[in-house]
Amino acid sequence: MTATPDPIRLEHAPSHEPRKNPGTEPERLWRNVVGELLRDARTDRGETLAETAQRAGVSPQYLSEMERGRKEASSEMLAAVSGALDLTLLDLTLGVAERITVGAAAPMRQPAQPARAAYALAA
Question: Do 38 and 81 contact (CB within 8 A), yes or no?
Answer without folding.
Answer: yes
